[in-house]
């Protein structure tokens, strides 16, 4: 696991919702390991209401190129994230319960720092990840910077 020995999993009910009453801007990211496909949606209202600001699609990745970790079968983790415009107040985790583990959830400006670190790492390694190529990562960081600089000009 990205944070050794700890991860978040939802055990009961339907979709799980994380409300952030004060809201957060700029972006959302996390690491996950899942045995099913799922979706994460980010809204500008509490309880998954209002406008959809962004969404992420999760793939079944839990055993990609690995065998079980010391505590179970979920041995592969992917980091995903999205940068958006607006102020989010809720995140909806869709998909069957007990099938997806989440870790290292980041809100707001931390996502931009992660984007920059990803680009630096790729430049140093001269390698590409399957989930996002170098040009995509660079463009996301540029779009975010442009938004940040112009957001008060309206």
Q: Order of SSEs, N→C?
A: EEEEEHH
| Rg from alpha-carbon coordinates | 16 Å
* Helical content class: 10-25%
Helix/strand class:
alpha+beta
Total count of helical runs of at least 4 residues = 2
Count of β-strands: 5
Strand order of the largest sheet: 3-2-4-1-5
Separation of the first and last Cα atoms: 42 Å
| Strand content range | 35-45%
What ranges have pLDDT less than 50 throughout 5 or more consecutive residues? 128-132, 143-154
On the 0 to 100 scale, the average pLDDT is 76
The general outline is globular
Q: Could you describe the largest sheet, including whether it forms a barrel?
A: 5 strands, antiparallel
Write a brief caption for the model:
The chain has a 5-stranded antiparallel sheet. It has 2 helices and 5 strands. It is an alpha+beta fold and 154 residues long.
Task: Give an overview in words.
The chain is α+β, with helices and mostly antiparallel strands and 154 residues long. The chain has helices at 110-125, 134-150; strands spanning 16-34, 38-43, 52-58, 78-94, 100-107. The chain has a 5-stranded antiparallel sheet with strand order 3-2-4-1-5. The protein is globular and about 40 Å long. Residues 128-132 and 143-154 have low confidence and may be disordered.
